[in-house]
Amino acid sequence: xxxxxxxxxxxxxxxxxxxxxxxxxxxxxxxxxxxxxxxxxxxxxxxxxxxxxxxxxxxxxxxxxxxxxxxxxxxxxxxxxxxxxxxxxxxxxxxxxxxxxxxxxxxxxxxxxxxxxxxxxxxxxxxxxxxxxxxxxxxxxxxxxxxxxxxxxxxxxxxxxxxxxxxxxxxxxxxxxxxxxxxxxxxxxxxxxxxxxxxxxxxxxxxxxxxxxxxxxxxxxxxxxxxxxxxxxxxxxxxxxxxxxxxxxxxxxxxxxxxxxxxxxxxxxxxxxxxxxxxxxxxxxxxxxxxxxxxxxxxxxxxxxxxxxxxxxxxxxxxxxx
Length: 322
Hints:
The protein is mainly alpha-helical and 322 residues long. It is 76% helix and 1% strand. It has one domain (3-313): Orthogonal Bundle (Farnesyl Diphosphate Synthase). The chain has helices at residues 3-6, 11-24, 30-42, 47-58, 65-87, 99-126, 129-152, 160-185, 190-217, 220-223, 229-232, 238-246, 249-261, 267-276, 279-297, 305-319; strands spanning 92-93, 96-97. Strands 1-2 form a two-stranded antiparallel ribbon. Helix 8 packs across helix 9 (190-217). Supplies octaprenyl diphosphate, the precursor for the side chain of the isoprenoid quinones ubiquinone and menaquinone.
């Protein structure tokens, strides 16, 4: 099943989210409007807003409140991408030039700050202190994850525990926060909020693991990302960590040097090591485990097209090519 088919139950909501995003990106400053238009045109899966909407609708919410929360989540995600691209010195995202490549690092960072601060204005508009608390904690966790990832870059001694901690903070917390916001909008009891948050947490971990796996298995024409892009940035992701752990001394040293130096001139050898050591099925198995945990978290949520869509998202993530 394709992503648009999975998200069909909230198609109208997602259109309202896109409208809200365009309206809230407007500024009196011309450069911000230009970067905002660039961001919108780049598209994306809108997965995080979808989690807000599906969680709210699965718990019976019929109001417009989840649309505002969904746009807020996408703003936070967008701000992190603007800053990430500067830190990673990225020139392309989703097949388009990054904002920093077009407007420079200063413009991209400051635009990211604008988007971040606008997201908090939108949280205030919700009138719910609980929303502010959840998202303040979430954005703080994301910032910690970004710093931890920066410290891990170029360090071949990063183990699986350190790798997963970055994922939990940098990716899973935003998925988790989005699902919890949907439950809050539905005025759900604490147990239901926690169940949706657990779903988002495990889906977020599985999502990032698959992303990291695609760096060594995807078709660049489909993914819009060159093979070995993470390696070029010295990121010790799980396929490399497992290949070093399971490989022989020569393979381990090859990958250690590649991580330390951010070298991709021996990418073909690294790819062979990743494949021959069983690192790919090992990584995929961990993603599958977290996907199962995500599905299990929904066991007490009433059956509906929205709950079914959440379950399908967990399955879709394991088979996506980008």
